[in-house]
Protein: aldehyde dehydrogenase (NAD(+))
Amino acid sequence: MSSKSLAVVTAETMAACGVTAPLDAADGLAVTSPVTAEVVATLVPHSAAEAEAMIAKADAAFRKWRMIPAPRRGELVRLFAEELRQSKEDLGRMVSIEAGKSPSEGQGEVQEMIDICDFAVGLSRQLYGLTIATERPGHRMMETWHPLGVVGIITAFNFPCAPWCWNAALALVCGDPVVWKPSEKTPLTALAVQAVLDRALARFGDDAPEGLSQVLVGGPELGEALVDSPKVALISATGSTRMGRIVGPKVAARFGRCILELGGNNAGIVCPSADLDMTLRAVAFGAMGTAGQRCTTMRRLFVHEAVYDQLVPALKKAYASVTVGNPLETAALVGPLIDKAAYDGMLVALEEARALGGTVHGGERAPEVSNSAYYVHPALVEMPEQAGPVLRETFAPILYVMKYSDFDEVLEQHNAVGGGLSSSIFTTDLREMETFLSARGSDCGIANVNIGTSGAEIGGAFGGEKETGGGRESGSDAWRAYMRRATNTINYSKDLPLAQGVVFDID
Ligand code: NAD
Structure:
């Protein structure tokens, strides 16, 4: 494939996914692959009027889709999963081209879509409500879950398709149409996913209304169109905390519902009893995998003084030897940063760390791979204390390492940042493990033992606390956010007893 330009490979891959729209508009939204810094397509973005029309179409689709029985809605998602299995390689390649992930990680993202579809198919027969004991004789009380309305899904560049599917697969079985505003950096994967879904829709037949799933191509202003529309019942927005600070209050102001999946500042704690070989591998993947561009990337590591001199030299060795390279042509473990802004952000953070007494290992650009694209050697930074850039998320492969001596103090340090997404402890000590998972332990939405901070499975609800936004999507009971709950009380007696024993007798 190295003989072909990436634009040609992109066009071929898009065609294999079933995309028929032209990828070569004269001007518009240029899509640049971080792999080579080549413009691989130029799309015509949607206008504000088109966004409004799409939302109206989705609203009309809701009126029909909500009346289709949920198990039948699940059948559409089952067919979609079949189509995804057929297109896994092509979609995975699109993820690699647009986001710079290795083929294994690109296809892993598609596998995650398949997994959540399978979950949603089962869910389509399990949208249970409770039956609740009432205090009134001859009465029955229960909860019913109904479809909510149009779901607006805004996604980030670093996971171009899986988070959409965490939302869309659940939304579709719950009876909700979806309108997707993907990152302006990765619209091609979204168009390819929609084309694959269109194949499932064609097989599904007339029960699916037009406008059940649509893609809005463009920048933040189109995300704002979703956010501001009273026709969009739920906004699920994945991206930076900066974006969440704008989106959250806007949706709240119109009493809309909002799932925020924002940035994290994830940490690991390595205790004296840790299995250090396992820890080394878990930290290497967690901190360097996907070039540090996962929301769950490990960014801080607290190492007990008793094992610091064993673990940290081994980590430095791993950092010095990790392979950096073109993910489409080599088996390198670390691919490119998304763009120059990401590289500049990394440089600023490393400079700040040095000024605070940090010792930086690695972190240089890798011109041997490319002079135009932004490949870097991951950086391990030994810090005297948690300060400055350590307190925020820099979306690049930087791991700040700090020494600790007291377990209670390190728990305080662990929780003393804005992000609350993912966390890990490496220990074989039962007391440390349970304390980390207890009410006074990690304050994150994800707390792991003896595995890294990244690589969550779809079965659990995914999301985090504090500046990560508090949202949950994917597995467990996250589906409830996509439905509205009605409490129903039925009186089958001949009397009218009032709750709380209230008396209101009229003759
Ligand atoms: P970003 O915030 O720049 O953009 C994310 C999306 O929001 C894009 O589609 C963008 O167009 C849209 N957007 C931006 N401003 C908007 C506004 N005012 N109104 C409506 N939409 C708006 O984020 P990014 O650089 O694409 O992604 C990286 C960030 O995303 C990191 O902080 C990472 O931690 C976070 N992230 C979080 C999760 C999670 O599940 N918690 C998952 C992936 C990425």
